[in-house]
Amino acid sequence: MRQTLIYCLLSIPILVMAGWFYLDKRNVKKRKWKRITLQAQPLPAEYLHILQAEFPLYSRLPDELQQKLAGHIQVFLDEKDILGRGGFEITNTVRVLIAAQACTLILNRPGNYYPGFRSILVYPETYVANSTHRDGMLQVTATSTRAGESWQRGPVILAWDHVLQGARDSRDGHNVVMHEFAHKLDEENAAMDGLPLLPTAGQYKQWSEVLSAEFGIQQQKLADGDEDVIDSYGATSPAEFFAVVTETFFEKPYQLEHHHPQLYAQFKQCYLLDPKDWCDIKHPR
Ligand SMILES: [Zn+2]
Fold first, then answer.
1. pTM of the prediction?
2. How far apart are the CA of 238 and the centre of ligand 1, in A?
3. Distance from the alpha carbon of residue 149 to the mean position of ligand 1, in angstroms
4. Which of 90, 93, 131, 237 has the fewest CB within 10 Å, making it most exposed?
């Protein structure tokens, strides 16, 4: 009797675990089918007009990638909450332009649509944020103006004026949405350290070698005050380097390849695409 009771008690956690795995598997399957359904739906005409009017990169994409982006946008908008802050009203233009720029990064990546967070907070323009850090015994609070930020396992925060500027000008090398969502890709394998998940295990060694060397070059250029196609903010940390080079890769591909061919090759393998295929400025500057 006592032995039977022990077996019964032991089997409870096993049954709970089995039930949890079953439900989790069922949810993954359900989500997969929902994504496939959403990806196959035609983009609403209003969304298409917004892309054509405000996001010129969309019109330059090859047909196959345009269709993929349209599908990704619909899944993204279904899975993320885009919320206004500072009295900002969220319209379909806001939703579509954030989704389109974020999903450009995952056009060809076997994707999970930026897991681990749900909320995107949007201020009307550059906003003021406080941050605290310790300096020895002191706790120091610093105030800075920001165009965007990405909290690890937390929300993405964006300033709409920069989001719109980034959508309209896809050649200046600056894109706050791509920058913040590059941070989100970076954190998919835990740390935000400039090392995202790569498509194959064999790529990590070369990625680390090339990125470390290139990051060192950028730090030296920053110290010497030398200019580069990569914005100097990329030299502040490996995480910022990955995010800043992502912006350059998508917006100035010819220039990046001309000045940093090995780095460009690594990013092509990471994103599984080549932005030169739709870039209309062919010559490095
Ligand atoms: Zn950053």
1. 0.88
2. 10
3. 7
4. 131
